[in-house]
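Bit of a strange request maybe. I'm writing a small parser for structure token strings and I need a real example to test against, not something I typed by hand. Could someone generate the tokens for this chain?
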Amino acid sequence: MKTTPPQMNKVVSARGGTYQVKHVALPFGDLPIDYEKLEEENKPMKPVGDSKNDVDKDTNKEGQGKYKLVTFVVFFANFLDWCLISVLNPSAPRYLGFSEDSESHPLSKLGFVISANAGVQLLANLVMGRIIDRLGAPIIFFIGMVMMLLSTLLLAFAGDISWDYRYELVLGFRMFQGFASGCASTAGMAWLCSSFSESKRSHAIGVAITGTGLGVVVGMPLGSAFASLGVVNGWRVPFLILDACLMINIGLFLYSLGSKLPRFENNDDGLGWKIVVRLALDPYIFSIFFLSLLLNTCVSSVEASLPTWIRIVLDAPQWSLGVFFIACHIPYTIVAFGCNALFERIGRHYALFLGNFIAGIGVFVAPFIIYAIHEGHMSLGFVAVPLALLGTGMGLFDAASMPFVAEIVEKRHANIMGSACAVINASWSLGFFIGPLGTNLLIDAFGYNRVYMGLGSFLFSSSFFCWFLRKIPLMKL
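Reply from user aminoacidic:
Good idea to test on real output. This should exercise your parser:
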């Protein structure tokens, strides 16, 4: 009589997920596992390290509400973070006593205040990735939000602490704010990547990333609007408004978790900091890191130099310097929020290609448009054209890059979303640190026209490297 081997359930780990499959015990050993067929025929269990509060696995109304609330909390945190980055730009020169002919406070020192946030945020990103993998994203996100609240409050009253040393205090509090931003931004993205499945992850990250564009749109006009209240009040009031918003977001965060922070499992598999090195050396993740670094360096260079350029060459009014950048960040918000379905259809590597290519064209044509405006062939409003192209490219790249990295991590590495998000966030911080510091040196040596044309050419030429990202193979262990 012919007998069949006994069947039993077997748990198999593959591509960042855990699967429960029917396993046939054979006397000569196990058959090789077809992972492609495994993903099609079996529903994945919760990935290692996911919390009991995983909102994506809930299909009832409570789970759907929690999904939307978590996404909004991360979105609001990104919005407030970028508001804090840009809100001091209009009022900082007057408050800190900077002017072009000042000897005690040379204008070049203002660049350190603007870049201090991004510089410290870069270090925080590199450190927080591994801590997030160990302790869990919600805990680090909460700590980052509390530190942002304290640093913003200290910035608002820096002059009251010591008016004579307000520059040193603002610089120190700005660095503290950068560390807090590194914690909150990296943990927020890691929270979304590890909590949601791939189908919902792209939408959640797209919504969260739009907070950065809206933050810059609101931050600079908010600082300009209150600058008319005077040197002290024009500096203090925007920070107090943002502090109140931070308190609201912390309350929403605690409510989303039931006022209880969950415990997460350790996901480092005993490798420790070797995981960060492995991610950084992965050619596919490194390619996205490099492309993101180029894009953010160009964006920060434009934001740091274009207002001065159009004010000197075109004699643009002071109020218009911040308004022009609305033309950059509104397309950014629309594209990042509304094109997630398109990314999944055409492929995220195409979105990265189009992002850098369009942004490069925007930077390249800026000198020609400014020259045409100076000669009277165009009106001042055409300054918005290169900024709109730049914002569209940024939105395409940023909305596709983080879900793409999460997909690569699931296919080629363990479930270490904290370290993966830290690597990409480091490219943002490094770009915004290099851009403002290096732009003035390049412009002094080569002039605005050559610098902008060079940055634009380099940016859209590098976009063709996205062709190598069209297929992501599994990691050979």
